[in-house]
Amino acid sequence: MTNPSITDCSGLTGTPQSIFQPCNVGELQAYLRSQPNLSLRIGGGRTGVSGGAVPDAHETYIDLSRCNGISWYDKGGGVIIAEAGVTMQSLQDEVSSEGWQFPVIPGSKDKATVGGMIACNGGGPLSLKYGKMAQWVLGVEIMQPNGETHQLGSYCTKVSEGCDWKSLIIGAEGTLGIITHAILKCAPALPALHYQRFASDDFFQLFELIPNLVKADSYLIEIAEQQALQFSSKVSENVLWAALPSAWSGSLPKGVRSTEAKVSDLAERFDIGYGLQGYKAFLDLDVCFPLKHAASALHELQDWLDGNGFEHRIARVTGLVGWQWI
After folding, report:
1. Are 214 and 221 in contact (CB under 8 A)?
2. Could you say which of 188, 221, 241 is where a domain stops?
3. Where are the beta strands (DSSP E) in 53-203?
4. What is the CA radius of gyration of the chain?
5. Which is the most buried residue in 193, 229, 268, 289, by most CB within 10 A?
6. CA dihedral 39, 40, 46, 52 (to 10 degrees)
7. Phi/psi at 92 (nearest 5 deg)?
């Protein structure tokens, strides 16, 4: 019987030579020790958009989605140990009951897993305020293809152990070992935020808002061009969304419209990705620009993509010193 195909959110697909889905880390270790010299591909929620978890025909696909236990939680200190297959939504549900939050929550939080987020150093809408996954990982446990395990990092932020080996694992896409557990720190619960939706017929007019929104200590800034919004709300305008610690009182560039919004209105932005999945296979191109050069650099990038016949859409979260664009 042919193994089922494996796909991620980009639409890329591969069929591995075999599939193994352990229910716990012990099962994974026993399997690897009994199956030496395997070519492995590791996956969980498969929410990536670059094919990182899509196996080749000669590979064994290891599905860690059932390794989803939370083994330890310091409710007073906001430190938690989660297996690689714990979804970001489950993690958030667990910590929020005690007044904490885990601030790196991607749009695909119901499927994205702790292991995958660490492997790609994932981010989310609140990365503007809280940074990416690396800022919230205190330690990781990894397993080598021979079943050998290593714990890197510890349970606290002040650790005197020499080299920060765990940071080599974060963002390494599983090339240095299989992430099996993570020690994560939490943040205090979000304050009451004020959400604002800005719209304009001219996409680049919205850029004029960004410096003042950053100075206002925004927790979130998202932007999307009209062409991208045809995959969600289908509005005929370009939109920027912001979450602020206090109500917006700044001035608006000419031609920019502003309305108060709710957190649920952010679905207009994040539904773009789901709409794209039903359109055609695509790759997520992340490009960062310094703040002061973002508009001119994006113009150049658009010209290059158009000139080389690449269909493209722009919709992405802004970062601390620039932007990342699809």
Report:
1. yes
2. 188
3. 60-63, 70-74, 79-83, 100-101, 137-143, 149-153, 178-185, 187-188, 194-200
4. 21
5. 229
6. -60
7. -65, -40
Tokens coding 310: 């690449």
| 13-62 pLDDT per residue, tens | 999 999 999 999 999 999 999 998 899 999 998 988 778 899 999 999 99
Q: Cα torsion for 69, 75, 80, 82, to the nearest 10°? A: 10
DSSP 8-state secondary structure symbol assigned to residue 59: S
What kind and span of H or E run contains 289? strand 288-290
Q: What pLDDT is stored for residue 323 in this prediction?
A: 39
d(CA 303, CA 206): 19
Q: Which structure tokens are listed for 123?
A: 């981010």
Flag whether 1 is in a domain.
no
Residue 49 is classified by DSSP as S
pTM here?
Answer: 0.86
Q: Which single residue is written with the structure tokens 């709710």?
A: 262
Q: Are residues 273 and 300 in the same domain?
A: yes
Identify whether residues 16 and 53 lie together within a single domain: yes
Q: Kindly tell me if the per-residue pLDDT of 321 is higher than 70.
A: no
Do 59 and 74 share a domain, yes or no?
no
